[in-house]
Amino acid sequence: MGDNDKNGVSRRGFLRNAGVVGAAGAALAVGAIDAASASERKEVAGRTGLDYDVIVIGGGFAGVTAARDSMKNGYRTLLLEARNRLGGRTFSSEFAGHKVELGGTWIHWTQPFVWAETQRYGLKLKETPEPFQREEEHVRLVLNGKSVELEQKDLIAAMQALQAFFADAPKLWERPYDAHHNWKDLIAADPVSVTQRLDQLKLTPLQRSFVDAYMSGIGHNVCDQVSYVEMARWWSLPGWNMTALVDSCGRYSFKDGTVSLINAMIDDSKPEVRLSTPVTKVEDKGDRVLVTTQKGDTLTAGAVIVAVPMNVLPRIDFTPALDPALVEAAKEKHSGSGVKVYVKTKGKLEGKITGVADSAHPLNLTAVYTKAEDHTIFVCFGNDPQKLDIQDREAVQKAFGNLIPDLEVEECYGYEWTLDPFAKGTYCNYKPKWFGKYYDHFQKDRGRVLFGQGDHGEGWRGFIDGAIGAGGKAALRTKTLLG
């Protein structure tokens, strides 16, 4: 391809930026990898003729959790990661002198798995100083192409619209960790997109734009590609209210980055880790599994845990072949395909401000991330990389300025996950009809090949919390298999 691909973004700029942040991310993880060297780890009796008891494919939070727990269960464990760093779709880096996360970022006590890990390792947290929604903050909405500041009556109307939009959520997700609890009602609503749900309601233009903005921002796609049932899941998990949702998804993060938890897990268990090692083939032979790497090495194990993002499953040749429904879903891709970009503006912003814009806008949610004496850092979410080259400061200035006027963009910084061959998307949200088509096919183990992907499962799937939960459950099932 040339400098610009079909997504309308600068591939050369992305690769240049990815190289910089890749080096930073790798440097943060190097200590953990060195600490996990084979000579230092605790050896356990292996099965005759096998290189490892367990091989885990994918070094995101799901894979690292599965590897840690497998080591603690007494198994010789190898963790294979295609990139030059661990963390998957989390990515600790620096921008304008501030620690930032280019992928998954925020955690909360409503997210049981990640919160337990934070407590286990005594990791320090920090608060995003300007959460998305507070009574005293200023909220700007793009309406009819112009940014307007919402008055208190407008905010009340917007909250009423959200409540109406999610009126069915307590019924659909009475138990947010059990999709089958109200399966009949959930399947009845399964074909409905966010756009179709909006069409069912009698909303003012302001109300519709506000709800559309939030749904496209957190759904990370245009609203007709995002499942209403999915967004109802988000609303239900923290307790069916906006304050809890905002706090759960945008308030607390790791003081020393998501990589601090990755490193703690690796240091705690010391599995063998091989970076820059893509897997090309997985063969279940009945009594063992053969794993072939891109370099041509073939490794044997008693069990393999697959913890790669769902969109990249077709990169690996499985024998026996994967469930055709998994391949179909992976090729269709989940709806998480937007952008996240950090914006440095000139001068310290006084007060709090949030900007929202509907699906047609390049940036749908914008909030203050942190402040310094001479600048302010915003974090922004958009639903479509074709609408905005996040490497282009002038393009970002135009989109950001339409949302929050009178601020000069000095720098912008982000990572384009849709161009990453080992991600091919951002965090996972299901599309309309996906529960009926695919839900019962996901996370189904096949022989000695087990699946522990953070994109699937119950609860906070698609989040760091869901990845940790998926990896831990896969390790438990592996223990049952191997004995």
Short overview:
This protein has helices at about 10-35, 60-70, 110-120, 150-165, 170, 185-190, 195-200, 205-220, 230-235, 240-250, 260-270, 325-330, 395-405, 435-440, 465-480; strands spanning about 50-55, 75-80, 90-95, 100, 125, 140-145, 145-150, 250-255, 270-275, 280-285, 290-295, 300-305, 315-320, 340-345, 355, 365-370, 375-380, 410-415, 450.
What is the CA-based Rg, rounded? 22 Å
Low-confidence stretches: 1-12, 14-45
- What's the β-strand tally? 19
**DSSP strand content:** 15-25%
- Helix and strand content put the structural class at alpha/beta
The oligomeric status of these chains comes to: single chain
| Fraction of residues in helix | 25-40%
Name the overall outline.
globular
Helical element count? 15
Overall mean confidence score, pLDDT: 91
Strand count, sense and closure of the main sheet?
A: 8 strands, mixed
Distance between the termini: 50 Å
